[in-house]
Specification:
The chain has about 270 residues and is α+β, with helices and mostly antiparallel strands. The protein has two domains: about 120 residues, N-terminal domain of MutM-like DNA repair proteins (Alpha-Beta Barrel); about 120 residues, Helicase, Ruva Protein, domain 3 (Orthogonal Bundle), CATH 1.10.8.50. The chain is built from six helices and ten strands; from the N terminus they run H-E-H-E-E-E-E-E-E-E-H-H-H-H-E-E. The strands form three sheets. The chain has a four-stranded antiparallel beta sheet, covered by helices on one side. A hairpin with a 2-residue loop joins strand 2 and strand 3. Helix 1 runs parallel beside helix 6 and helix 5 crosses helix 6. The chain is elongated and about 55 Å long. The relative contact order is 0.15.
């Protein structure tokens, strides 16, 4: 599933290509699994709206809209295999396309999702109080004290706590493993028992890993591509995730795989304590 860097990359790419444009018309596939809002409501809210901004909140792509001086939002969750692509009308429509937004420029914004775990919805009246804010804190901007407080008295393993979207939204399996590696912390350690120094290292590592992954276009380990259909490159820099049995890039100890909270987890038994 695309995580924060992948969603950020897609959102930034889509914003650069379509912001300021007006949505002329909307087509939907009406497949019920794809739509959290009714397709008719999505069509009503989007048609005639101007796209002011495309950005990321957690793992959700948020499209800020204006029509007749009223604000609305279009929310896109990519799920496992979702793609948000900017295309020309003469580009063949891929199988499993579930929404096509025809834009004033003549281009189209298409949502493609083979497995249909992605979700589309709208907030018809996006006042400041109603705008989508996500379930947890933003990992890239969270302050140190707030970060430390998140894990206070938590008895769950730190890996599971990092994946808890109500604490930090946007962090998934890849970047939890990578940030714990760079912080030198074993994923099985109880979150509430980590020292202030360890949590300080973890916050710094998380921000560094996420920032570097965004610069490299995210990690393409499955179906992820950006707004142009191009894969990311951060997977070439993974130190722990999905490197089971391979030598640690620091100490050459084989990377170990275990299961934490039902999720595959990768770490170095020597570098992470």
């Amino acid at each position: 599933m695309p995580e924060l860097p992948e969603v950020e990359t897609v959102a930034n790419g889509v914003h650069a290509r379509i912001h300021g444009q007006t949505i002329r018309s909307v087509w939907t596939s009406n497949k019920p699994q794809t739509f959290k809002s009714a397709p008719d409501e999505i069509i009503e809210v989007l048609t005639g709206s101007r796209i002011d901004r495309v950005h990321r909140v957690g793992k959700t792509i948020v499209v800020d809209l204006t029509r007749n001086k009223k604000s609305a939002q279009f929310l896109v969750h990519l799920g496992m295999t979702g793609r948000l692509l900017v295309s020309t009308p003469d580009t063949p429509v891929p199988a499993h396309t579930h929404a096509i937004l025809a834009l004033g420029s003549g281009k189209e914004l298409r949502f493609v999702d083979a497995r249909r775990f992605g979700r589309l919805s709208v907030i018809a009246s996006a006042t400041p109080e109603e705008k989508y804010a996500g379930p947890g804190a933003e990992p890239l901007t969270i302050g140190l004290e707030e970060f430390i407080t998140l894990f206070h008295n938590r008895k769950t393993p730190i890996k599971a706590a990092l994946l808890n979207q109500s604490l930090l939204h946007g962090v998934g399996n890849i970047y939890a493993d990578e940030s714990l590696f760079h912080a030198g912390i074993r994923p099985t350690r109880h979150a509430g028992r980590l020292t202030r120094a360890e949590l300080t290292r973890l916050r710094a590592a998380l921000i560094k890993v996420l920032t570097e992954a965004i610069k490299l276009g995210g990690s393409s380990v499955s179906d992820y591509v950006d707004a142009d259909g191009v894969a990311g490159f951060f997977q070439l820099h993974h130190h722990a995730y999905s490197r089971t049995g391979q030598p640690c890039r620091i100490c050459a100890t084989p990377i170990k795989r275990i299961v934490v909270g039902g999720r595959s987890t990768h770490f170095c038994p020597t570098c992470q304590k």
